[in-house]
Amino acid sequence: MSEIPQGGLPGGADTPPSYRVLLFDRDGKVQSSVPIPVHDDELAKAVAQRMSNGLSAELWDGLRYIEQFDGTD
């Protein structure tokens, strides 16, 4: 099985990350998709966790799913 390079799309290891946070409303519908200008997973997770603030959120890098936050973290 081939790995999807960081950045979520084919193009090589030098492809910069493209992080975004999806925030969901109480009904589970996407409320917003917010790009975040960071360069590594750990910082992206910290930002996404802070952004969740009572809402469910998902962190993505291009097409690569990273983590879900339930808003109580």
Mean pLDDT: 85
Binned, the helix content reads 10-25%
Largest sheet: 4 strands, antiparallel
Range of strand content: 25-35%
Strand order of the largest sheet: 2-1-3-4
Number of strands: 4
Number of helices: 1
Instruction: Summarize the helix and strand pattern as letters.
Output: EEHEE
Shape: elongated
The radius of gyration computed from the alpha-carbon positions, rounded to a whole number of angstroms, is 13 Å
**N-to-C CA distance:** 33 Å
Computed structural class = alpha+beta
Low-confidence stretches: none
Provide an overview of this structure.
This protein has 73 residues and is α+β, with helices and mostly antiparallel strands. The chain has a domain at 19-69. The chain has one helix at residues 41-52, and strands at 19-24, 30-35, 56-61, 64-69. The protein is elongated, with a radius of gyration of 13 Å. The relative contact order is 0.24. The mean pLDDT is 85.
Blueprint of the fold:
Elements: E1 19-24, E2 30-35, H1 41-52, E3 56-61, E4 64-69
Antiparallel strand pairs: 1-2, 1-3, 3-4
Record keyword descriptors for this entry.
alpha+beta; four-stranded antiparallel beta sheet
Short description:
With 73 residues, this protein is α+β, with helices and mostly antiparallel strands. It is 16% helix and 33% strand. The longest helix is centred in the middle third of the chain and has 12 residues.
